[in-house]
């Protein structure tokens, strides 16, 4: 253990949190919970024609409710429902309309119609289901039963029937069939979501309560079969001890013209091994927790891209902000984004890599590369590279030849989701889904168009190429949340790419502080797992729903929290969040409650000490890394300090480069720096006197 110049006990309030008022960085006084001006003109893909159809249906419904005569009332109901039906028929999973007068919130057309149907009286809903029952049934029957020649085609048709005929018997049968197909594929999360929608349709058309109860019973039975997350040792550890230090590279920093620093990323595989992605290489390490990791493989992703003619790179003089690697893993494979669309850089690509088998014995060649993994597939620009190195064009990506994959892909039930940017003056942000086994494009969705934060606050005020990457994606069950850093975030159902909703955030002024955008947003812990979203282009923290909108407007769930002196989000619940930031001249870990309530500060770093990266939060513990060491707090006891361990600094490195983002699995806690890995092991025993 290495002691810091000032011991941690002198800098941490043990058990007694020091309260301080939230400090505004906006230069103006706002009442608690007030959000202030949005300063946001990002373009959201709302369809005005579908909005007009829905509005005409709403007007006809109002007219129907004013009619005393039954025949006339039903005539106007038919007019209203036909308008809604036309809106559904002319839309797809990607079609959205504005859901509020401020034109800040969009929701899918199917979601908008389902909400309207829930607001009808039982008699009106019955009229809807009867009006479309025969038509829906005739479209559904050819796709039920019989030989399953084309599973994908059947799924698409079933989802189309369900989307266009909500609250009908046919929609319920389609959703139930989809649930069975998803269950057969092992996609339990998707199957549970299909059953949820099936139950909604049953209640919508007044189906039998016994059938609805049987659906809930099946959902509960399937939920019990989901993998249960057992508590890992690090989540309730009483302390930690240093194991050792591992150098990832002996090279000095290389200048990267026009680019900001590339921050490494780490992911654990299911078997306990872990991979570290640095600027140009990927290191694969063993799963032994009680020793310094052994390197099993070292490879360059560029070497796996056997292309003779690479897509052209884009000049980016504004690219001076950090780019953070966020590799992910599923079924033993690695998925990572490599390279940037910058002059002089390696080609930007999304890769699926098969690591060497766990039982393989490291056998390094003269270059120190060890056993090489195999490329399963890669997508770069509009090209797909398969496992044999064959290159083929992807027709649906013809406009993406100069696109840039953004860091932070996720894998959800056989699909790899990644954000992509097209840059032609303005920035277009897209979400793409690929088959995790083959790399085949499944769907693409345009999310938003905008720009970096500019002095005039307008997306038309600058022609710079983006310097700030999109936010790493967040998996939320069978859905994915995409923060664009262009002024909006979107929740998308991954089954067929249905955009459930999109929401514009307040954008900060260029000179003001925003959240650390290199980290994914978080799902809150506790019984209500909402999305905690702190965009880098905003000075507000938002709590957002993790599913479709059930009511008129449910975004945000609480008044937005002002960033104040916070800098990075650690975690939290619906009622309070943990952040890293400042308290005047001091750097601190703080607990923020509802707007207008005092901030509670728990940790004050020493003079010259800085936070070194992303922390860790469990239900019981909070882990924070500085460039001096790791702090471990008891979350259940007002952030009581349990332990502190300083970093061992290699002789060839300066102390200012110590520390990094924290990653944990089992008993192993890792601090990943720019080119160094610090290895720690948890212990159950609390330090003496604690």
Fraction of residues in β-strands: 25-35%
User: Assembly state here?
Assistant: single chain
Query: Total number of β-strand segments?
Result: 40
Arithmetic mean pLDDT: 85
Strand order of the largest sheet: 2-3-25-24-23-22
Tell me about this structure.
This protein has 690 residues and is of the alpha+beta class. 20% of the residues lie in helices and 29% in strands. It has 9 helices and 40 strands. The chain has a 6-stranded antiparallel sheet. It has a 6-stranded antiparallel sheet with strand order 11-12-13-14-15-16. A hairpin with a 2-residue loop joins strand 18 (410-412) and strand 19. Helix 2 crosses helix 4 (122-140), helix 5 packs antiparallel against helix 6 and helix 7 packs antiparallel against helix 8 (209-224). The longest helix is centred in the first third of the chain and has 20 residues, at 70-89. The radius of gyration is 26 Å and the shape is globular. The relative contact order is 0.13. Residues 1-28, 312-319 and 461-466 have low confidence and may be disordered.
């Amino acid at each position: 253990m290495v002691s810091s110049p000032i011991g941690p006990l002198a800098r941490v309030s043990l058990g007694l949190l020091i309260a301080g008022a939230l400090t505004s960085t906006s230069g103006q006084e706002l009442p608690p919970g007030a959000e202030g001006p949005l300063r946001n003109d990002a373009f959201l893909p709302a369809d005005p024609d579908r909005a007009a159809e829905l509005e005409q249906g709403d007007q006809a419904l109002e007219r129907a409710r004013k009619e005393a005569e039954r025949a006339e009332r039903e005539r106007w109901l038919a007019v209203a429902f036909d308008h809604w039906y036309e809106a559904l028929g002319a839309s797809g999973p990607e079609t959205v309309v504005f859901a509020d007068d401020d034109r800040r919130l969009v929701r899918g057309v199917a979601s908008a119609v389902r909400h309207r149907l829930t607001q009808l009286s039982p008699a009106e809903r019955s009229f809807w289901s009867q009006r479309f029952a025969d038509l829906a049934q005739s479209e559904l029957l050819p796709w039920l039963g019989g030989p399953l020649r084309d599973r994908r085609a059947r799924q698409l048709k079933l989802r189309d029937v369900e989307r266009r005929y909500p609250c009908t018997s046919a929609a319920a049968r389609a959703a139930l069939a989809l649930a069975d197909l998803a269950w057969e594929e092992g996609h339990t999360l998707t199957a549970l979501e299909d059953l949820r929608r099936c139950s909604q349709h049953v209640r919508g058309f007044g189906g039998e309560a016994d059938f609805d109860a049987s659906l809930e019973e099946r959902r509960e039975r399937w939920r019990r079969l989901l993998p249960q997350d057992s508590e890992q040792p690090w989540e309730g550890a009483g302390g930690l001890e240093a194991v050792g230090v591992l150098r990832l590279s002996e090279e000095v920093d290389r200048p990267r013209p026009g680019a900001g620093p590339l921050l490494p990323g780490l992911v654990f595989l299911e078997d306990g091994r872990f991979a570290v992605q640095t600027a140009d290489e990927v290191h694969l390490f063993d799963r032994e927790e009680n020793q310094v990791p052994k390197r099993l493989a070292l490879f360059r992703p560029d070497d796996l891209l056997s292309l003779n003619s690479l897509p052209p790179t884009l000049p980016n003089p504004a690219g001076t902000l950090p780019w953070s690697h966020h590799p992910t893993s599923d079924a033993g494979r690695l998925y990572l984004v490599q390279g940037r669309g910058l002059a002089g850089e390696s080609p930007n690509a999304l890769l699926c890599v098969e690591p060497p088998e766990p039982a393989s014995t490291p056998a390094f060649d003269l270059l120190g590369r060890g056993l090489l993994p195999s490329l399963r597939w890669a997508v770069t620009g509009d090209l797909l590279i398969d496992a044999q190195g064959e290159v083929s064009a992807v027709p649906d990506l013809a406009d993406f030849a100069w696109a840039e994959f953004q860091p932070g892909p996720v894998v959800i039930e056989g699909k790899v989701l990644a954000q992509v940017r097209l840059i032609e003056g303005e920035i277009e942000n897209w979400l793409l889904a690929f088959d995790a086994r083959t790399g085949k494009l499944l769907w693409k969705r345009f999310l938003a168009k905008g720009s970096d934060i500019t002095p005039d606050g307008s997306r038309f005020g600058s022609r710079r190429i983006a310097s700030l990457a999109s936010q790493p994606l967040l998996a939320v069950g069978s859905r994915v949340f995409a923060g664009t850093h262009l002024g909006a975030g979107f929740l998308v159902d991954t089954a067929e790419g249905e955009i459930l909703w999109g929401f514009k955030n307040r954008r900060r002024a260029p000179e003001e502080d925003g959240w650390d955008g290199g980290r994914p947003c978080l799902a809150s812990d506790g019984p209500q797992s909402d999305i905690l979203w702190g965009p880098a282009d905003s000075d507000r923290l938002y709590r957002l729903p993790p599913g479709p909108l059930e009511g008129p407007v449910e975004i945000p769930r609480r008044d937005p929290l002002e960033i104040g002196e916070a800098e990075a989000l650690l975690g939290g619940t619906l009622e309070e969040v943990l952040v890293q930031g400042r308290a005047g001249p001091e750097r601190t870990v703080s607990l923020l409650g509802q707007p207008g309530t005092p901030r509670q500060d728990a940790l004050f770093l020493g003079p010259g000490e800085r936070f070194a990266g992303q922390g860790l939060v469990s239900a019981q513990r909070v882990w924070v890394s500085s460039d001096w060491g790791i702090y471990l707090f008891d979350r259940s006891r007002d952030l009581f300090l349990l332990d502190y361990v300083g970093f061992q600094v290699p002789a060839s490195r300066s102390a200012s480069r110590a520390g990094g983002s924290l990653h944990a699995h089992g008993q192993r806690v890792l601090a990943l720096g720019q080119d160094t890995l610090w290895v720690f092991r948890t212990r159950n025993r609390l330090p003496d006197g604690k």
